[in-house]
Request: fold
Amino acid sequence: MKLGFAGTPEFAVAALERLAGAYPVRAVFTQPDKPAGRGQALNMSAVKRRALELELPVYQPASFKSLEAQALLRAAEVDALVVVAYGQILPAAALGIPRLGCINIHASLLPRWRGAAPIQRALLAGDCVTGVTIMRMETGLDTGPMLASRSLDVSARDTAGTLHDRLAKLGAELIVETLEALADGRAPELAQPAEGITYAQKITKAEAVIKWQHTAGQISRQVRAFNPWPIAETRLRGGEQLRIWEADAVDSHFSSADRGALPGTVLAATHEGIDVACGTGTLRILRLQLAGRKPLPAQAFLQGQPLMGTRFAES
Reply:
């Protein structure tokens, strides 16, 4: 089977590597290089970087809506185009070019968490189980029939970063199995259920601001979901940014009123962590970072920043 591949971020790299080791990859499509950093130098995508290392042909059309991009896909003469976090919805004209269609790896158990940020949204919602779905692409947003799926448990310590890596590996394994079944006519196509549809909207930096009147459980999930980006944050005295990389919810049955403290107040600052009153429960901060500094364990942070009695703010 001759394949094309369309993907952009690091999540897609594991699948590209696995497919390149199993099939001839005739063309790799990824988003155009974008300016990044202070110097605004053009930065290539993770998929482009790995594809060049693998000596695969790379194309970067602005959109598959253009006749030129569709001509590139047609000229590659691929049997299937595997799409992983490519960054845009493919039009019907492009979807119909490969003989076996366009096959997508999506990082959720569809129809739950269709859309741009399924990993973060699953963590924010407190999902105990997630997974990957292989589906045949349609013009709708993650609406196509399912060819395969595989689940995994979400641990209490999973962050968006750790879950990203586990799901990327799982998707890479499952896509190879699914393509083999598809080639042999053994891949059943199941329509997605009409019940249980949820949408994973794109993550914004504004969502990373902690609202201390929320429960400790909600804030703990926020910390995990926004690690490694954009990182949950609060404000120290004087408005200085304080980013929280790791935290646990403790004493979940006590409200801030029970403790006689306003939400956001530091209740304890010890070698075990920094305990902060929430609307309900207490958040124990384990690793944190001042703006322009390195992330530190709570014990090391407290050596230079005594926080007992401090009250954190949203802005």
User: Anything to note?
Assistant: The helical segments are 13-22, 46-53, 67-76, 92-95, 118-125, 160-183, 216-225, 298-304. The mean pLDDT is 94. The CA atoms of residues 240 and 291 lie 7 Å apart. The chain has two domains: 3-106+128-191, 205-304.
